Amino acid sequence: MDQEIEKNVSTEGFFVIKKQIFSWIEKYLKAKVQVEMFEFDYKRSILILPERDTAKITRELNELLLKIEETFEVNMIAAVGNSVDSLYQANESFRSAVNLLEYQFVWGNHLILTDDDLKEFKNEIYYYPLDMERTLIEHVLKGRKEEVTQILERILEENLTSRNLAPDALSQFIFAIVATSNRIMHQMITVDKQILEQREINYIELKMSENKEQLKQKIVELFVNLVDHCVQETEKREDTMIDEMIGFIHEHYDTDLSLTDIAEQFNLSSGYVGILFKKSTGENFKDYLNIYKVQKAKEILETEDIKIKDLAQRVGCNTTNTFIRMFKKYVGISPGQYGEQVKEKRNK
Fold it and tell me: What pTM value is reported for the model?
């Protein structure tokens, strides 16, 4: 739907207009052809037509869009996906239609976009939508190698197999890919000197590929190396972070310390802290803290004569009973029994 409407009416008003138009479209089409209509998102709908003749579909849709413009004073665009043999292949048709919409700027004010229109430009334009680049960068920075590989497969299949890019278009595509890798490096917290030096020659190396298959391999290798670096960077950062957390726990174990306290101290979520703790120490936060409390309690019992009540407070337990249960869980005996054993050893 026309972006001007979104700018000039409230959100509520936009949805009212959209509902009226889509309802009108459905009634109009069902009176003329067999059709199923589904709402895709807040301003797009999907039409499924049992018709393989693209020219016929185009004529029907063109008439429809002109009537919408006349009736509602709204500009709309329709993209006709490739015809398929069954509903099980509908997703293929849908993806081809979405692909057309990504290039609607090429045709200016065209009302109907078809694959035939795109074929005229395929050798001149490379395929690399901005939202795909953003997703690729996000997955690289988060170390998601499988997702990165899947996105690259789609990009490379489209540009190096489905399209026969002219030399200038291929150079532009390579430049765009290298630009993405540079954006990723800029967002890394630390970057190895070797990777920074490689950045200067990535474009030349890719341009010097002997064939498209070699170019594919080099592009995949470039991004896999970036993923590996991000994973290593994350692991180093997590190691430093967990060391700082453990230091904080050792310093404040004698208080009523919680996972939330740790999370707030390091500006992280409680869930992430819990996962990081388990991954790095093999223990969940509560067990690690309690084991450390018990360890400090044993040290105190081995050097001092102290009441169990006072000992519980020393190691940050709110109640004596809670402390006794905790001590017995990890040591196998009560703190009183442990203290007696220590005294017996001293007297021998």
Answer: 0.53
